[in-house]
Design a protein that fits this description.
The structure is a homodimer of 378-residue chains. Chain A has two domains: 241 residues, Type I PLP-dependent aspartate aminotransferase-like (Major domain) (Aspartate Aminotransferase, domain 2); 117 residues, Aspartate Aminotransferase, domain 1 (Alpha-Beta Complex), CATH 3.90.1150.10. In chain A, β6 and β7 form a beta hairpin. In chain A, α11 runs parallel beside α13. The first copy, chain A, contains 14 helices and 14 strands. Helices cover 42% and strands 16% of the residues of chain A. A seven-stranded mixed sheet of chain A has the order 2-10-9-8-5-3-4, with helices on both faces. The first copy, chain A, has a three-stranded antiparallel sheet with strand order 11-14-13, covered by helices on one side. A two-stranded parallel ribbon of chain A has the order 1-12. The first copy, chain A, is globular, with a radius of gyration of 21 Å. At the A-B interface, α1, α3, α4 and α10 of A face α1, α3, α4 and α10 of B.
Chain lengths: 378, 378
Amino acid sequence: MVKRYLLAPGPTAIPPEVLLKMAEPIIHHRNPIFETVVAEVRDGLKWLFGTKNEVLLFASSGTGAMEGAVTNMLSPGDKAICVRSGKFGERWAEICQAYGIEAINIDVEWGEELDPADVERALKANPDVKAVYTQATETSTGMRFPTREIAAIVRDYPAIMVVDGITGVGVFDLPMDAWGIDILISGSQKALMLPPGLAFAGVSDKAWELNKTSKCPKFYFSWAKELKNLQKNQTNFTPAISLIIGLNASLKILREEGLENVYRRNELLAKATREGAKALGLKVFGKNPSPAVTAICAPEGIDGQDIYKTLWKKYNVTGAGGQGQLKGKAFRIATLGYAEKYDVLTAIAALEFALRDLGYQFVVGKGVAAAMEVLKDM
Amino acid sequence: MVKRYLLAPGPTAIPPEVLLKMAEPIIHHRNPIFETVVAEVRDGLKWLFGTKNEVLLFASSGTGAMEGAVTNMLSPGDKAICVRSGKFGERWAEICQAYGIEAINIDVEWGEELDPADVERALKANPDVKAVYTQATETSTGMRFPTREIAAIVRDYPAIMVVDGITGVGVFDLPMDAWGIDILISGSQKALMLPPGLAFAGVSDKAWELNKTSKCPKFYFSWAKELKNLQKNQTNFTPAISLIIGLNASLKILREEGLENVYRRNELLAKATREGAKALGLKVFGKNPSPAVTAICAPEGIDGQDIYKTLWKKYNVTGAGGQGQLKGKAFRIATLGYAEKYDVLTAIAALEFALRDLGYQFVVGKGVAAAMEVLKDM
């Protein structure tokens, strides 16, 4: 008998009731039954993204919505600020390059904090910048960025504030309208506890204004057409029907828990993960770790990939290895999505088993005990 | 108790065992278990597309792969021939326009046959044409086009032959290598009996050569990067994991039946649908109806939308209405995918019930009997 535990930063585990909902006989999308589902989903996404505006849905992975946040806003030759501090932050600059946008990169060393004043300096130095591309959290480093503070700066400039919230939305508060986020991107396979294949983009009035002037070519990811269809509870092209039906079920689960409780749960689970690791003498990577995913440094003399692989192969806990610069130096345990206290204890126990196998010296049980201390009132 | 029957041209019904396979706990994509699935899927798609080359997979609906067949092959200012004879044929020209490609349109009246000589004339008149965009079948009209004959012409020119086989692949033979098809597109929600959200593109050596010169911007649909990843049993961005797992199951079902049997089944089911309709005094739309979907003309005095809606609302058979020019004038019954003889009898019986309700005069049972006559040896 093998029971597997998925604690990766996407895909995350899917509640069985959501899996079964998606396993029901498929329905046709051009009919009122599906349109009722879309109407509910529109409502749920507005609630989750904290916006009165529509949140667009795409049959694609999150990168498709990131691409759209460039091609639907800018024109070749435009300037944009890209904050780069990990593999996914770099993607913003890569997309800009592919579409002939001049990227002004703010490079932050992996694991360091971003000073919002750097964004303001870049905006002042380049008053013709049309968009600022940032991240709420960076999956490769497990870092969280000061979205609220950056948005508060950008809102006084003509540029729009774009946030990759793929591992942020549904994990911690990112209220679009209250903070002045103009585009907030997410994907289905993270906090929304679904298979990958759906991407989301909340879009503010300021962003829709900029959209009117955008000349980058686009077709599949044409946001203006998507909006028109969505307002009729439809999509421009054939939608990922089963995922949208699953999304409706996931959103209902989150609504029942309540957003404050969801965010508190995520904060505590990540804190317990960090405390568990620290109690074993390990270092958590980065100055401002995210509640979505925890990057833990491998102790000296042990390869991070060996820890990740032992966890997965021998102890049935699928986390993630280190990515890019962190390959071999760190491994990751994600606690976003369909995770609760016992999942963290499972992960830390598996980590203890793996570290023991790899010859690391520590007191067995200390990590789990430290995690339990954080989780005791949960 | 309500039992519903889905006989629409996409999504098509999904075998329960495939639905349940996709409802299993999700697995992470960056690991050997998933890579084994991708390896099997690569193999199965090559078999289905009749090619030694790779068939690329995208997390998108079919239109995403259509867009990629333009942006990965051409450069702004290039010329392409687009055959337009229905809503989806028109899409080729729309994509070309979005990316600054000069579309030389061959317009064929809806329902009429395309003369391959028209393609040759256009190629001779425009020797700098880089691609010919065609369709194997047109979902909006239920027409089938002479793909083999057009490919035989195009192969002697520098241009590549691109086929939208979204409702063709897995319905009738479209062997890429044998016929000289350079790009063959399909989607998951048709003959492959899956939810929408996966698109496919088989790509020939000639097309990969052209790809090297292409300057259209692209990022999410970047085929060269996708190929590199696929050769390692991976995808460039997070794949639609559950759909790929379902695809593996669907491909196995098709392999077990054998392609010749699959094609024969599809031919017979469509023929039975046509004969059933004709026996009721109805006219089948178009000169060369496709085995994927049958467009049936509404009899005088009855609105095609009323037939479609009565079928769906009262008799639990979901077909499709008329699309574009055919709205109100026709309705459609699709027999591709997870359909067999009893499904056709159900559809024709429901059609008889609906026509009776709408005041049409005919001998009850005559349609079903005619369909049975076609299906008796199946």
